[in-house]
Specification:
By secondary structure, the protein is α/β, with parallel strands linked by helices. 37% of the residues lie in helices and 16% in strands. The strands form 4 sheets. The protein has a 7-stranded mixed sheet with strand order 10-9-11-12-13-15-16, with helices on both faces. Strands 1-3-2-4-6-8 form a 6-stranded parallel sheet, sandwiched between helices. Helix 2 runs parallel beside helix 11 and helix 5 packs parallel to helix 6.
């Protein structure tokens, strides 16, 4: 398989892993990756078109989930494909632009006739394309969902938990560990992300006697020192950082300059969990900064996590990140592949594939805290549990107690769907 792109792409930068981290993750990998039929025979039949939309070029490269999915599909095609049919994986770059997202998704769905989407990761494409996916009956098993629309569409099922659920878990942990009574949540003022992603801690806190306030910042022009001083002036016990890594690091540096970590506990949603963050923020934050993880740690020793790392080593470029987004892309591709392998390869069309994906429940991986499902619901947020970790100065120390499940009031309909399906 040669992964196709509707926009030419250069190799991905190794922005997350230094040499030491690469060695550590390599040690966690298993020798021979497994995927699909695992028969060692290249697939030569009629290709099956699968698509993805990612935000590769723009404020940040947000495409590592699709890179991992591409590696998985390459492995599948070298091991029998989908009962002899190779996957033709086509990745489109939306350039962080809603109009471009609409255009490239339309080409995938209407021109390339993709059967489904897997590994999509974007800040803008959920809102731009959710209606079209429903009209065309295309299921999206997304790698990473960010804004609200990603978790509120019938045909869009993200593998990750999302910033609202992740921040809620971080808030729950802060109350459990630090007996916090007042929190401030910092979030970019991006449409459909803004206050929504900090409403989880606020609504959960209101039920438990905890006050949570929100500071929405302009991600392109916010002054780190001003934001930190504004947050500190509200006299919180805890500050929840619900921002991308590129904003997080300078803000923690500003907080350190004011010595805020001495009297205020800092926690974060999942974007902080990158192997380079502890070193980037420095020794001041040892034991003073905790983050949620949407998946199990990158170096965890479960068989599936080791399989992901081994597969990346064999089928992905060395420059492709081995990060939590890559974990999610791997899972999205694996889920889709296993659903397709249960079908008659001669009778696959979009409607039957969408039906098969909606029927998925009990999808298991040690990368996940709990089995994953898709289901017939009007929206999807199946991954709503995750562990916590604390910076130890050079890396992350996973907190005792394992995975925490979000008690976000917004998940009430998700819990009702789970009860109907007999999961959890």
């Amino acid at each position: 398989m040669s992964t196709k792109h509707l926009r030419p792409q250069t190799s991905l930068p190794l922005r997350l892993l230094g040499g030491f981290a690469l060695l550590g993750l390599a040690a966690a990998a298993q020798a021979n990756p497994s995927c699909g039929l695992g028969n060692g025979k290249p697939a030569t039949g009629e290709p099956l078109a699968i698509g993805a939309v990612v935000g590769k070029t723009g404020p940040d490269d947000f495409s590592s989930a699709a890179s991992a999915a591409a590696a998985y599909f390459k492995c599948v095609n070298q091991n029998g494909g989908i009962h002899g049919r190779p996957v033709d994986y086509i990745v489109a770059d939306d350039q962080w632009n809603p109009e471009t997202a609409t255009q490239v998704a339309s080409k995938l769905v209407k021109d390339r006739k993709v059967l489904a989407m897997a590994g999509s990761t974007s800040f803008v494409e959920c809102g731009a394309n959710a209606k079209m996916y429903a009209q065309e009956d295309v299921m999206v098993i997304a790698g990473v969902g960010v804004p609200r629309e990603c978790f509120n569409a019938r045909n869009y099922a993200p593998i990750n938990s999302g910033p609202r659920v992740s921040a809620t878990i971080a808030a729950m942990y802060a109350v459990q560990k630090y007996q916090a009574k007042k929190m401030v949540c910092i979030i970019p003022n991006i449409p459909s992300l803004g206050n929504w992603a900090c409403e989880g801690p606020k609504e959960w806190g209101a039920r438990h006697g905890v006050v949570s306030e929100t500071i929405a910042i302009d991600p392109g022009s916010a002054d780190a020192t001003s934001v930190m001083l504004q947050a500190a002036a509200m006299k919180p016990d805890v500050i929840i950082m619900n921002v991308p890594k590129g904003i997080l690091v300078p803000m923690l540096a500003a907080a350190e300059q004011q010595n805020l970590g001495k009297k205020i506990h800092f926690v974060s949603s999942a974007p902080a969990y990158n192997v380079d963050v502890p070193k980037a923020i420095g020794p001041y934050w040892k034991g003073r900064f905790d983050t949620n993880l949407e998946f199990q740690p990158l170096d965890s020793q479960g068989a599936d996590n080791r399989n992901w790392l081994a597969l990346m080593d064999k089928y992905a470029a060395k420059s492709d990140p081995r990060d939590s987004f890559a974990q999610s892309g791997y899972l999205a591709a694996r889920l889709l592949t296993e659903a397709l392998l249960k079908m008659d390869p001669k009778k696959m069309d979009r409607a039957s594939v969408s039906k098969a994906l909606r029927a998925v429940k009990g999808f298991q991986s040690d990368i996940l805290c709990k089995p994953f499902y898709v289901g017939e619901g009007q929206r999807h947020n199946a991954n709503n549990s995750g562990p916590m970790a604390s910076s130890n100065g050079s890396g992350w120390s996973v907190a005792a107690g394992g995975c925490l499940t979000a008690e976000d009031p917004e998940l009430a309909d998700i819990r009702a769907d789970e009860a109907k399906m007999g999961v959890r």
